[in-house]
Amino acid sequence: MRVQRRSLVGALLAPAILSGAPVLAGFNDIVQIFCDVDLATAGSCDATADGMKFVSSVAVSPDDHHVYVCSSQADTVLPQKESLSAFSRAADGSLTLVDQEVEDSGGVSTLESCRGVAVSPDGNHVYTAALTDSAVTWFSRNPTTGALTFTAGDSVSDVEQGSELSGAHAVAVSPDNQHVYVAAATGDAVAAFSRNTTSGDLTWIDNYIDDVEGVTGLDGVEDIAVSPDGKHVYVASPNDNAVTVFSRDDSSSSANFGELTFVESKFDGVGGVDGIERAGEVALDPDGDNVYVASENLSFSAEDWFAAFSRNATSGALTFLQSFRTSALSSPIGCGGLAPTDTAIAVSPDGLFVAVSSPAQSAIATFSRAADGTLSLVESICDDIFVVGSDDIGAVADLAHSPDGDNLYSAGGAFETLATIDSDCDSANVDLALSNESVSTTKSETACRSITMGPDYDVLAAGDLLAVSPVIALGNDVSFDGEVTLANAVP
């Protein structure tokens, strides 16, 4: 984040008040930390659940009512095998455990080393990907209680499907609810399935395997995402240091509905691409304009952290925009990490913020997102041993925003925690009347919006923005990127 040269013209009686860079938005407050009952530091969290050993993936239901998280290891202190936990979500985002589906209990036998979880867009089912069991499992979801129901046969594994499903690591459901795609780390493959929207049942369509029929960039693939328009699928591969693009047949009348076609792979260090060494997580913004790829296995040195790409909505092809290294984040001295581990990345539902975890600093950083998809650091929070209430948000393996944008959920694997973070910020309607011809005005912006007033001026109001005629006061909660030219302002 930077503050560039600024100038004031016109009839301002007082200048805009600009804080130094970087500026803190102050909106990422921890609401609650849920942790396993056998956690050593259980006094700092809500330790009322078992079976949260190395929670690895978190997802929020599309109706905002429930949160689902799966664990990738069995407990050792109070023995319980891997589980899929269901939580109800209160108005402030805090959680209450309502259900657990446990490995080798109630007929469930395909959750060992659960690494991925996804809720179907229609809210009817929850899908999991289990690394050791090399399986995808689905559960019917009660939309009122959030509770899950498993029916015998509601899973598919490499025993049935073949080695291409081996090491199932991530699962994604298409926006039209018709298909499910699985990233298989050991199989170096992506598996495509059609989905019965009533039962949730999956029927195999095809496999796409690394170095077969021209496909590249799938060695050890760990994450997968479908574009919001349903036209493309993106996967991240740590062994290939790559993000790979497939086009998806999204026509329901097509004989090839749901099938994928390889488009391209972007490799770290090739063609100017940087920041995706050990690429392990991929996410898109809600409009599908950009793709963000985060790296895993970070150390305390300044290694690749994550990168931003622009997306061609027609072809799905990517253009590299920028990259970040861990050295870009300066954490307080008390913020210690537990690297190596996975890095998580999540884009807010309004597309204005991108949250990225940094295992090396035990931190979660929030970036503002400009119109072209490039990012600027707003603030970070960390597991600071000197600050009460920041405990146990380290070693974050996954992040998920609630669809209403009010909360960010953080799955801290090594600390066995699920944290609720208040990612909403106070909003106030502001009308800006600027007479300078070089400045365009966007009226009635809210305080969590990016206000663009010309090609060189972008204001991210992540907190308080006060406009009282004839003064504009942009306080410590507002960040800037570009040259500011103000002429006048009225409320």
Layout of helices and strands:
Layout (H helix, E strand, L loop, with lengths): L5 E3 L20 E8 L9 E4 L5 E6 L5 E6 L11 E7 L5 E8 L11 E6 L5 E6 L4 E7 L6 E2 L5 E3 H4 L6 E6 L5 E6 L4 E7 L6 E8 L13 E4 L5 E6 L4 E7 L11 E8 L11 E6 L5 E6 L8 E8 L6 E8 L19 E3 L5 E6 L4 E7 L5 E8 L13 E6 L5 E6 L4 E6 L27 E3 L4 E5 L3 E4 L2 E4 L3 E5 L1 E3 L5
Parallel strand pairs: 1-37, 2-3
Antiparallel strand pairs: 2-31, 4-5, 5-6, 6-7, 8-9, 9-10, 10-11, 10-12, 13-14, 14-15, 15-16, 17-18, 18-19, 19-20, 21-22, 22-23, 23-24, 25-26, 26-27, 27-28, 29-30, 30-31, 32-33, 33-36, 34-35
Summed up, what is this model?
It contains one helix and 37 strands. The chain has one helix at residues 158-161; strands at 6-8, 29-36, 46-49, 55-60, 66-71, 83-89, 95-102, 114-119, 125-130, 135-141, 148-149, 155-157, 168-173, 179-184, 189-195, 202-209, 223-226, 232-237, 242-248, 260-267, 279-284, 290-295, 304-311, 318-325, 345-347, 353-358, 363-369, 375-382, 396-401, 407-412, 417-422, 450-452, 457-461, 465-468, 471-474, 478-482, 484-486.
Describe this structure in words.
- The chain is mostly beta strands and 491 residues long.
- 1% of the residues lie in helices and 43% in strands.
- The protein has one helix and 37 strands.
- A five-stranded mixed beta sheet has the order 3-2-31-30-29, with no helix packed on it. Strands 8, 9, 10, 11 and 12 form a five-stranded antiparallel beta sheet that branches. A four-stranded antiparallel beta sheet has the order 4-5-6-7, with no helix packed on it.
- Strand 22 and strand 23 form a beta hairpin.
- The longest helix is centred in the first third of the chain and has 4 residues.
